[in-house]
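# step 3/5: fold
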Amino acid sequence: MNQILDFEKPIADLETKIGELREYSTANVDFSSEIKKLEKKADKLKKDVYSNLTRWQRTQLARHANRPYTLDYIERIFTDWSEVHGDRNYRDDPALVCGFARIEGKPCCVIGHQKGRNTKQKVHRNFGMPNPEGYRKALRIMQLADQFGLPIFTFVDTPGAFPGIGAEERGQAEAIARNLREMAMLRVPVIVTITGEGGSGGALAIAMGNRVLMMQYSVYAVISPEGCAAILWSDGTKGPQAAEALKLTAQDVDSLGTVIDEVIPEPLGGVHQDHDLAAITLKEYLLKHLAELEEYSPEGLIEQRYQRFRAISVFEEPK
């Protein structure tokens, strides 16, 4: 599936023309000069478009159907991947993938939300919205990683935890709260990357890390723009207006100073343009932060994580 967003259409049209000229270009009919002109025009248009995106457009990029998901990153960054299933209590949750792998030969734990690209995959993965058993599975794997001293990498990309009746009956809120408490006490490095959507507690349940990174066109907020609009104005179609108010982009969150640690640059046009390059860049950042965290003792990691999240709040006392 090749999804083209509204603001990407002029770029797509130019690239189509370039492709057609290449196809018709022969030894007798040379379109090379025209192709070079169009390529230069397309590059300039790309830079202009992607340097002036609204918050809503960045949200659309974060949700782009062609963005790499957790399994795409695992395939390109890690080796010896072995997925683990089930929470040993109710069932497996395909919306969260968990397992063990190696990064540059070092054993580690990998956990992340997984969406689908076609209808069948989306239904199977529940649109990337975990049930409580997904969070309990993730916690089970994190506790195994803690037991064996393995660093943990989590990849966040979810609209939020699944709000269905069954999920609530099985303790959705309790599962998220327990993850937050237990992750705060892990004695191993935890590196979190917001790869697409970071939606509410559904994201935070695997985002209590020593380092929290965001991809350039990812978003991180307490609620989706549509959900915010439905509450404030009883109109979910006012998502673009809500996105501006939420200030949910990576640049907005980074400006707060303490919520995230670094913004990871994406290829021009977003990571959906080049999965391989995106994975190479992300891997460099993961290895850099892992090397820094490996200098800490287990107790030091707990204290660093505690102080990191403690510093997020700002309190002002009346004079």
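# step 4/5: annotate
The chain is about 45% helix and 15% strand.
# step 5/5: archive (pending)
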